[in-house]
Design a protein that fits this description.
- The chain has 115 residues and is α+β, with helices and mostly antiparallel strands.
- It has a single domain, classed as 3-Layer(aba) Sandwich (Trna Endonuclease, Chain: A, domain 1).
- The protein is globular.
Length: 115
């Protein structure tokens, strides 16, 4: 019997992914991946409210509505919004990216990067 193509792909483990991010940030994973009204998104730490995403595809689209929902949830907690994306490559190795508001890096995003 021939093995299906999907059987060779590395398995995504979203719970482990969230826990690893929480450990790295010194925070905690939200219960039930943020499905409760009082504990939104995936990971919360002293600075960030993070929504973790993992994909085996070659791209990930960010919708403005999703970013706004993350931003509103973070503001309610007094935190900065963070979108953490992991691309799982065909060999199983990850490419980890983080998306933050420009104001986290530059106090006034209209001025651009500091020189």
């Amino acid at each position: 019997m021939k093995t299906p193509k999907w059987a060779d792909k590395p398995a995504k483990d979203n719970k482990q992914h969230e826990k690893a991010w929480a450990r790295a940030r010194g925070g905690r994973a939200q219960p039930s991946s943020g499905r409760f009204w009082h504990a939104k998104m995936d990971v919360k730490d002293e600075e960030l409210l993070t929504d973790n995403k993992q994909t085996e595809r070659h791209s990930y689209s960010i919708k403005v509505a999703e970013w706004r929902a993350l931003t509103r949830a973070a503001q309610r907690e007094g935190l900065q919004p963070c979108l953490q994306i992991t691309f799982i490559q065909s060999d199983g190795s990850p490419i980890n990216l983080v998306i933050l508001p420009a104001a986290v890096i530059t106090p006034d995003p209209r001025r651009g990067p500091r020189t």
